[in-house]
Amino acid sequence: MSRKSKILSNAELSAFCQQISLIIAAGLPTYYGVSILCDEAPDKQTHDLLEQIYKPMELGATLHSALKDTGYFPKYMINMIQLGEETGRLEEVLNSLSKYYNREDEIASGIKSAVTYPLVLSAVMIAVIVVMIAKVLPVFSQIYAELGSELTGTAAVLMKLSKYINRYLLIIIAFMLFAALVLFIFFKTRFGKKFLMKTALSMSIASSRFANCMFLALSSGLDTDRGLDLAQALVNNPVLDSKINDCRKNISNGETFSEALLHSNIFSKMYSSWIAIGSKTGSMDEVMQHICTSCEDDTDARLSRFISVIEPAMVILLCIFIGFILVSFLLPLLGIISSIG
């Protein structure tokens, strides 16, 4: 486990929950299981962290309080483990948390891949275009000059553009880097994050988190109010946060939980029949689990579509641009050569 950052990574949290769950399933006391993990720690950092957890538990502290004291575990995980300890369903909660954080790690990796690939491809495309205009076009200009002809039309415009790019190349590169830095800083601000969180992908991820949290809460015996509290702290999405507040107001006005969910538009209308069935059959926790799985599948599909569309689109644009340059210069050049022949 890495301790470079204050909170452990999703992959580390998933592995920890899975390990403690296996210990409980084996019938071992939790503190004893933590001591085994401590003895088998692969590095000093992991050993020190597990020892921080083990020492207070050996003296009678609960697992959630020991985790809280380290400062390396998220509040949501600590609250859910506390809930599992209080209801006697710690093993189930830990299994669910392991799956949740494993899924969060997969989503983060998917988003990183979906963003990194287009950025690298864009950088390569821009580099090719700049080289074409700045270095290749002057070669055609020399050929035309040696043949005693002048560039006209589109070729002349591109040639002038080439001269400007060669003259101000460093300034252009500096401007592009500055623009990229401004965009990066903007998306780190509150307004930038709010803009990103309004996208369909962000809403799908937030809905999945909400459904998963409500599933854990309801299946562990919590009431809807406490479940909404946990979910609101977890989703970290201002759009969905506003809808959860609307859901609270609807409940306070006398609506049932299922009616409040439908009227607050937390989920899309396609899930309305699921929620209605869950309300009538008393299996709302299972419905939330199914909705969570469906939202996760939707997130995967959106990421896959984005990657599958952006790759050929950018390659096609690059081919069109290069083809346009070559046609603009080669067709007049072929005409000159044929007339000389």
Automatic annotation (TrEMBL):
Domain called Type II secretion system protein GspF: residue spans: 16-138, 210-332
Superkingdom of source: Bacteria
GO cellular component terms, A-Z: plasma membrane
Subcellular location: Cell inner membrane
Lipid bilayer topology: Multi-pass membrane protein
Key word DNA repair present: no
TM region positions: 119-145, 165-187, 313-337
Keyword terms: Cell inner membrane, Cell membrane, Membrane, Transmembrane, Transmembrane helix
Similarity remark: Belongs to the GSP F family.
PANTHER family membership: GENERAL SECRETION PATHWAY PROTEIN, TYPE II SECRETION SYSTEM PROTEIN F-RELATED
Protein name: Type II secretion system F family protein
Species in which this protein is naturally found: Agathobacter rectalis
